[in-house]
């Protein structure tokens, strides 16, 4: 199915106030039976759809359940979808869709009861569902019947195409597009018209002291079904859900920012520690190289000293050798002179 948010981003302004939900539990409302619904896909109206006056009339409190909302920022859903697999998948999906859409229709009927105009929705299609499995598709429309205050909900089969047939391949997508183009304006206009008939709670508490406003109830709460809590009529009550959502958004943003900053700080610290380790390793390597260099220089000096010592010894030996040669020459000359002298005497 096409996403409302994506279509709005692409320029479909009619879906500005439409919100999608995917597998979100409907925690803000009471189930009709069994566990709370959790449709695979749901589509409803945003809080921004309604004006301040209309929000006061709805009297929705962020910390309480309401017949008009199913989860945060989704009001009066008009489409649900379930995707199942296995045996009797479509039947199982139909049952879940029936439960979800009965709750959605109950919201509109409750608003009509508060406005005193239940004939507006008697036997009128107020929502649709899509059941889907691997090979099948079922589309239903849902409507209420109101007889002497007793409300019953029914469904009407719209289509059951075979999605494996080529011409039916885009049936689901086209149906949702047509639903948003044709049914959504009717659905929204109907809610606006009904809300006009609901008395403004501020008009009924104008003479009450400001300190007692929190103890008063709105006209919507007085006319709701007995199973729901009454909505207070404080003038600022309509803004509370939006403010709470803004606060939650800001808190989430601050938490995300804090987490990012902590992550950056941790990464920075890790980088600094790695850099310090690298610098220490580099310092140790340089010290080792300097020590080795000094050792080599010392060895070189020692070798040079030994070389000089050997050279000195060599010079000393050469000097001794020359001295011995001179002495031998002198002895030889002296002996020669003696021999010559002896020969002359014999003559």
Give a topology summary.
Layout: H1 4-9, E1 18-21, E2 41-45, H2 52-58, E3 69-71, E4 74-83, H3 89-115, E5 127-132, E6 137-147, E7 150-159, H4 171-197, H5 201-204, H6 219-223, H7 240-346
Parallel strand pairs: 4-5
Antiparallel strand pairs: 1-2, 2-4, 3-4, 5-6, 6-7
Helix pairs in contact: 3-4
Outline:
InterPro entries: DUF7924 (IPR057684). This protein has helices at residues 4-9, 52-58, 89-115, 171-197, 201-204, 219-223, 240-346, and strands at 18-21, 41-45, 69-71, 74-83, 127-132, 137-147, 150-159.
Number of helices: 7
| Domain module tally | 2
Task: Kindly report the average pLDDT value.
Answer: 84
Largest sheet: 7 strands, mixed
Label the overall shape.
rod-shaped
Rg (C-alpha, Å): 49 Å
Unreliable residue stretches? 205-239
The class by helix and strand makeup works out as alpha+beta
The number of E-state strands comes to 7
**Element order: H for helix, E for strand:** HEEHEEHEEEHHHH
What gap, in angstroms, lies between the N and C termini?
A: 152 Å
What is the share of helical residues?
Answer: 40-55%
Strand proportion, as a percent range, falls in 5-15%
């Amino acid at each position: 199915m096409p996403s409302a948010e994506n279509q709005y981003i692409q320029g479909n302004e009619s879906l500005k106030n439409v919100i999608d939900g995917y597998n979100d539990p409907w925690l803000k409302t009471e189930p009709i039976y069994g566990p709370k619904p959790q449709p695979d896909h749901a589509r409803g109206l945003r809080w921004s759809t309604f004006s301040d006056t209309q929000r006061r009339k709805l009297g929705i409190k962020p910390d309480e359940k309401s017949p008009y909302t199913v989860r945060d920022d989704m009001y009066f859903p008009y489409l649900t979808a379930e995707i199942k697999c296995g045996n009797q998948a479509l039947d199982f999906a139909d049952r879940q869709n029936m439960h979800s859409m009965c709750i959605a229709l109950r919201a509109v009927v409750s608003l009509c009861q508060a406005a005193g105009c239940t004939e507006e929705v008697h036997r009128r299609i107020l929502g649709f569902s899509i059941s889907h499995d691997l090979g099948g598709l079922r589309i239903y429309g849902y409507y209420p019947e109101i007889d002497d205050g007793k409300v019953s909900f029914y469904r009407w089969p719209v289509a059951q195409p075979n999605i494996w047939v080529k011409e039916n391949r885009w049936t689901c997508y086209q149906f949702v597009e047509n639903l948003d183009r044709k049914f959504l304006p009717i659905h929204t206009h109907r809610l606006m018209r009904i809300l006009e008939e609901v008395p403004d709670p501020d008009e009924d508490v104008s003479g009450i002291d400001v300190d007692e406003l929190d103890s008063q109830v709105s006209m919507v709460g007085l006319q709701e079904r007995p199973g729901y809590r009454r909505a207070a009529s404080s003038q600022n009550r309509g803004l509370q859900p939006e403010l709470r959502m803004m606060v939650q958004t800001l808190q989430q943003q601050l938490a995300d920012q804090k987490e990012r900053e902590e992550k950056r700080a941790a990464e920075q610290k890790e980088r600094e520690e790695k850099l310090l380790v690298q610098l220490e390793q580099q310092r140790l390597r340089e010290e080792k190289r300097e020590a080795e260099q000094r050792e080599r220089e010392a060895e070189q000096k020692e070798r040079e000293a030994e070389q000089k010592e050997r050279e000195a010894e060599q010079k000393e030996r050469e000097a001794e050798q020359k001295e011995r040669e001179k002495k031998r020459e002198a002895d030889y000359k002296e002996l020669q002179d003696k021999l010559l002298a002896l020969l002359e005497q014999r003559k």
